[in-house]
Design goal:
The chain is mainly α. It has helices at residues 16-46, 52-89. The radius of gyration is 20 Å and the shape is elongated.
């Protein structure tokens, strides 16, 4: 079997190069978001005034970091499970159990 092609799924064969390309873009977006949040938290920690607004911004930045990391891990796990199911069931039809 061609190493660049995954087994056929419901919508036809999946090109692994395309999947790698989409993860490259996703990682760039994730890294940019995490760097933005780190910069915001560092600024608020060292130079920000002790106000309720800055506290809310810091809590929001921490929440965004947590949700981005959670979504990244969950999305990777979901894609791995989907790829395994696609490989084990071939065409993607039938029971998933």
């Amino acid at each position: 079997m061609n190493q660049d092609r995954a087994p056929a799924g419901v919508n036809g064969p999946v090109d692994r190069r395309t999947v790698r390309g989409t993860w490259r873009v996703r990682r760039r977006i994730i890294h940019a978001t995490l760097l933005f949040c780190a910069g915001q938290i560092a600024y608020l920690t060292f130079w920000g005034a002790d106000t309720r607004l800055n506290e809310t911004l810091a809590v929001g930045a921490y929440a965004l970091v947590g949700s981005v990391i959670g979504a990244y891990v969950f999305g990777a796990a979901w894609e791995d499970i989907s790829a395994r199911r696609s490989e084990s069931y071939g065409s993607g039809y039938g029971s998933s159990y």
